[in-house]
Write a structure and sequence with these properties.
The structure is a homodimer. Chain A is mainly alpha-helical. Chain A has ten helices and no strands. The longest helix of chain A is centred in the first third of the chain and has 25 residues. The radius of gyration of chain A is 18 Å and the shape is elongated. Chain A binds a DNA duplex (30 and 30 nucleotides) through helix 3. Chains A, B: Keywords: Coiled coil, DNA-binding, Transcription, Transcription regulation.
Amino acid sequence: MKETRDRILEVALEVLGENPDAGMGEIASSAGVVRRTVYGHFPSRLDLLRALMERAVAEMEAVLAEVNASEADVSWVEFVARVWPVTHRYRVLLALRRGEHGETIHGLLGPVDELLADLVQRGQDAGVFARHLPAGLLSQLAYGAVFAIADSDRSDLGSRAATITSLLMLGVPEARAVALAPG
Amino acid sequence: MKETRDRILEVALEVLGENPDAGMGEIASSAGVVRRTVYGHFPSRLDLLRALMERAVAEMEAVLAEVNASEADVSWVEFVARVWPVTHRYRVLLALRRGEHGETIHGLLGPVDELLADLVQRGQDAGVFARHLPAGLLSQLAYGAVFAIADSDRSDLGSRAATITSLLMLGVPEARAVALAPG
DNA sequence: AAGTCATTGCACACTGGTGTGCAATGATGG
DNA sequence: CCATCATTGCACACCAGTGTGCAATGACTT
């Protein structure tokens, strides 16, 4: 069924998020299915990753479109707060860029990187974000902060803490960051 | 010779720093030696990692002792600037905590974590660092910032940028962080 | 009832990394 | 010159993960 395929993708996102080295077997059993079935939907591990990336790009584009459709004077800070959750959801892909299929992933994920860098760049130009690092690197860093928090074994501090920290790292003064973070 | 053993350790630190999944063969050839020779010095991969950890703990203790021996009113900020380089040098070990021998590594590296957490805790108590996250997590985050920068493909921005970013994330106002960072 | 289709259970081949055994080589120092 | 010892070069066994082939099962449709 098509449900199965979706469930595998969903579970793979979780499992690989926990451990990027998880094998097809582990993903399969976590999805309540046999290894062979996974290969039925995704001929190779890379195919599965590709499917994951397609979803990632799609969701990211959706969020960007949604935000762009809203008020023009939406603060960059709010923008950040909306974008990070999505990038966190697909954090595996970022982690996997250093691995075997790194080139492929880096290529397909490049546009997202550029979007984030663009975002931060505009924030810097608007004088909201600090300028001690290039925009591309700064966005990667803020991203890193988000999923470092998510990966911590404390579940009590959620996306709000991540957002505040990201903003701090981006150079937004603490008082303002705390005030702007949603939640 | 003993040189060989040292060289292997040194090279392993680099190679694994680039790619934590690098095999014994890759480490060996990078050290200009044959795989078999590595096994001569370190019976298993885990043994090699243990040796790496011993070094890490030793160096970290040395830095802490050095700083403690200096003036009592050394600012926390300077303290941070001195500690991060060491933790960055041994970044592999942090990365490897999520892997196969994660438990072992986590155990032997725990004391360092606690030291860093302590450091940040005292910074928070002194009112220098922000309080939006628990000390332990905050120190991990600042650490993450350091080696995210080091891992970037831009070699021009070094430890100064990393320090500034760490300080920003810790909640130190931008102007002050820039002023205090060495370099 | 018949047919379609996803899933399953096994068996298999292949790969890449790990760790070991052993004889040969070669430098170093007494 | 001789002995020692690190290093080397193979060969090997072993394991875990990947990907494939194929027949059997079972549910859902018409």
